[in-house]
Design a protein that fits this description.
This protein is of the alpha/beta class. Helices cover about 35% and strands about 10% of the residues. It contains 23 helices and 24 strands. A hairpin with a 5-residue loop joins strand 3 and strand 4 (about 65-70).
């Protein structure tokens, strides 16, 4: 079934140009999510038949026009499954829009270049975090594991009941670990601390739709913190995990978990002893408790600082627990590994001083204790670089967390010693990857994508601390790897971007048993071919659509049978969130436009702080206002925005109007080809056109505009037919580099088309004229969640270019009077091309 669906999708994508095409074993890999305008931008050409290229071009994804050509590329020869590879550098191209790359007869998937390319991406990953919740699960609208659990390994409390319900399931299995959960909590808090504007408030504390006055990322972090408090109920008492691999009994929903631990629905809760644990044939190599205590302490301390504003009582509790956890870690040095059960797989964490380094830094930041701050540096010196960085291989989670946030924190304070340590780890990976076409020096061990996410954060923190861009291209390559610029040409985050090739068959009970998509989940990522071949109980369920790209070097499958490469993990997903939030912040720095008022994903008002009005005019086949409108705008030295359908542009008798408006310097844009209705009037959330129909119609509109010399770059804004649309059309526009715009509601100026016939609502021009001025005077701006906005500031005022002949009372005949009055009130008339940019 999966293969059949794939073939149908391929036919559609080739028809409409959505996906890349390959010729005789050659492909172009790109970051399908997109690139910031002023960022390093590369693609990779790969071939299994030694194909060579000497130049490439960028083409507009909507119109196919060539916008950039270059010979800036570097050959790499054979690598992995490919006999030839090139890196194609188009960093010099900074124009915004949607494009694809063509080299010879090979074309890439399309991608965007835009300041908002990463907007909302960090928030998107929170969808998966909510799906992983234990206790009440908002995805299932039900609760699971409410009887957790009973204590084991405690010297006096064995088999005692303890309430530890909550937190997150680690991955597809339902085990829960302090190590990964505390790391995830820290990453969520870090993301908010550094980039708070990247996160919205669309969900409540329980993860159900509806704002609660707290950013969603903090709701999620608080969910994890509440569970950590249960796992560290009092000073000197810590638990490391819930359940063990007796959980691995097949795919089933968490609310129907049938794993048997001998106590009904209760699961074992492992007490931290600092000694090896394992109930069956395998045991871990635990030597202490500091690795777990340090993670508790850093999560609690950062939580106390970040949550003071929102939950002061909880923050005070966290502050006390942070100090206690840190002191407990000092008293119990060593690693507290997770416990195996009936199989040899467990998190083999071998380092702990990094955890105590970060814990000391965070506790010092919380308490102001200079002595503890010095202890952070002392711990940090004991592990100058995270050992996996530069290594060829590593055992499962052998060095965890995968990046040294303690080093990053100390580097923030311009500590040259720790800046050097931070750089050393990055450089080690750089050296391994600098001669590969994807600049990929991360080892292909289990959860390689988690290593990529961690390294991205370290690269970003290093550059922020030093301004040194030595590793900027490697950082860009690692970023691009996660979104499709990799041997398999697929993104590694489910559903991001919505239009891209991303995992559709992940190893997940939610997906396999119930068809629930895991939007936002970062999958494990490729592993060495030798790792894949030696895994137990591995069986692909539906063939291998990536067979051409597999090699002994690296293997990846989009198949739920492959639990090694295609399973989303909670901590890996959380680790990517700070980096994506940082990219959103970088995009915001590059924006040249102001903040807009949005509705259904479209811009309905430009900068509300400026007394500027944007006049827009739409037309399909009624054009009787041309002479009047053109003359009035010329009189007031104002530029308007004219949005016409393909029906309009293709009429020879209208060509002089297009020519005249262009000569006057007005904006001419698209209004659909055949003036389709996109959504029912009575149910806006429904859609009357498919994505393919919408794009075909839009292409037709731009094809007609091109005949008048209007390129897609000249016309980046789209005003929908009937001035009616929904989120689907806005997203489709965004995918192809267009901005959806519409009139500002409130004045009813868009009702100037109505005709005086019995039984119909009719608005006279006098009534509309007065409504516009009354609206301005009365400041009636309570239509938006942003609250009241002044007058007509930033207003997009729509008047029809022509109307039904039955209407003889034309609003455009009052345009001169209206503009004169509004100019007296201090307004300036601007073009959308000037205000949106």
């Amino acid at each position: 079934m999966k293969a059949a669906c794939f073939r149908v999708a391929l036919v559609l994508t080739l028809c409409f140009g959505f996906a890349g095409t390959a010729l005789a074993g050659s492909w172009i890999r790109v970051n399908q999510l997109g690139y910031l305008p002023r960022s390093i931008k590369n693609a990779v050409f790969v071939s299994t038949d030694q194909a060579k290229v000497s130049s490439f071009e960028l083409r507009d994804a909507l119109t196919d026009e060539v916008v950039f050509t270059s010979k800036r590329m570097k050959a790499y020869g054979a690598w992995g499954a490919f006999s030839n590879a090139y890196r194609l550098d188009f960093s010099a191209f900074e124009k915004k829009g949607a494009f694809y790359i063509r080299a010879g007869e090979v074309r890439s998937p399309h991608f965007r270049i835009a300041e908002d390319a990463y907007d909302g991406a960090a928030d998107f990953l929170l969808r998966y975090m909510r799906q992983q919740r234990c206790g009440y699960n908002p995805c299932l609208k039900d609760s699971c594991h409410t009887h957790d659990g009973f204590i084991i390994y405690h010297p006096t409390l064995d088999s005692t009941r303890i309430d530890v319900t909550g937190g997150w399931h680690d991955a597809t299995d339902y085990l829960q670990y302090t190590a990964t959960s505390a790391t995830a909590v820290y990453q969520l808090l870090l993301a908010y601390e550094r980039n708070p504007k990247a996160f919205g408030d669309s969900y409540d504390r329980d993860g159900n739709p509806g704002p609660n006055g707290i950013p969603d990322v903090l709701d999620e972090a608080r969910w994890g913190l509440a569970w950590l408090v249960k796992m560290n109920p009092e000073k000197g008492v810590m638990f490391n995990q819930i359940a063990d691999d007796r959980d691995h009994i097949g795919l089933r929903l968490p609310v129907g978990d049938t794993a048997d631990y001998g106590r009904g629905k209760e699961r074992p809760v492992y007490f931290c002893t600092g000694k090896p644990q394992g109930l069956f044939g395998y045991r871990n190599r635990a030597t202490g408790i500091a690795s777990t205590a340090g993670k508790f302490a850093s999560a609690f301390a950062l939580g106390a600082r970040v949550l003071r504003e929102y939950k002061p009582d909880f923050a005070r509790c966290l502050e006390e627990k942070a100090v206690d956890a840190y002191e407990f870690g000092k008293a119990n040095p060593g690693v507290c590994q997770t416990a195996p059960g009936t199989a040899p797989y467990f998190y083999e964490e071998d380092n702990w001083t990094d955890d105590m380094e970060l814990a000391a830094w965070e506790v010092a930041a919380l308490t102001g204790d200079a002595a503890v701050r010095k202890e952070a540096a002392d711990y940090g010196r004991r592990e100058p670089t995270t050992p996996w960085m530069g290594a060829e291989t590593a055992r499962h989670y052998q060095w965890y967390p995968f990046t040294s946030m303690g080093h990053a924190r100390l580097a923030e304070a311009s500590d040259k010693e720790f800046i050097g340590y931070l750089k050393s780890g990055i450089h080690n990976v750089y050296q391994r990857g600098k001669d590969t076409p994807f600049l990929f020096g991360v080892p292909f061990v289990w959860c390689s994508n988690n290593l990529v996410s961690a390294l991205l954060t370290q690269c970003r923190r290093y550059e922020e601390a030093t301004g040194d861009r030595t590793y900027a291209e490697m950082e860009a390559a690692l970023r691009d790897w996660l979104f499709g610029c990799n041997p398999w040409g697929t993104g590694m985050v489910v559903g991001l971007p919505a239009w891209g090739d991303t995992p559709v068959d992940p190893h997940s009970s939610l997906w396999v048993t119930s068809g629930i998509t895991l939007d936002g989940g970062l999958v494990d990522g490729p592993v060495y071919g030798s790792v894949f071949k030696n895994l137990k109980w591995m069986e692909l369920k539906d063939g291998d659509e990536y067979a051409s790209f597999q090699s002994d070097l690296a293997v990846y499958h989009d198949d739920y049978g492959d639990y090694s490469t295609n399973e989303p993990t909670m901590d890996g997903t959380a680790t990517l969130i700070p980096y994506l939030s940082a990219l959103q912040a970088l995009g915001a720095e590059q924006k040249t436009r102001g903040n807009f008022v949005m509705s259904y994903g479209g811009i309905v008002r430009t900068d509300p702080t400026k007394k500027e009005i944007n006049l827009v005019f739409t037309a399909d086949t009624n054009v009787d206002g041309y002479e009047t409108i053109r003359a009035v705008l010329k009189k007031h030295n104002a530029k308007g925005g004219f949005f016409f359908t393909g029906n309009f542009y293709r009429k020879p008798e209208f060509a002089h109007m297009v020519r005249g408006l262009r000569e006057d310097g007005h904006y001419l844009g698209a209004h659909s080809d055949h003036h389709l209705l996109y959504a029912p009037w009575e149910n806006r959330d429904s859609t009357l056109v498919t994505r393919e129909e919408f794009l075909a119609d839009l292409r037709g509109n731009y094809a007609e505009m091109a005949k008048h010399g209007i390129t897609r770059a000249d016309a980046p804004y789209f005003l929908p037919p009937y001035e009616w649309y929904n989120h689907d059309q806005s997203e489709w526009c965004r995918e192809y580099g267009l901005a959806m715009v519409n009139f500002s509601p409130g004045t009813s100026s868009n009702q100037d088309w109505t005709v005086p016939i019995p039984g119909a609502m009719y608005y006279s021009s006098e009534e509309l004229y007065n409504r516009i001025l009354d609206y301005e005077a009365n400041n009636e701006m309570n239509l938006y969640s942003e609250g009241a906005l002044p007058g007509l500031n930033g207003f997009i005022l729509l008047i029809h270019f022509g109307t039904d002949p039955r209407r003889t009372d034309k609003l455009y005949n009052r345009l001169d009077d209206l503009m004169t009055e509004l100019e007296k009130r201090g307004y300036r008339f601007t073009s959308l091309a000037e205000t949106i940019r």
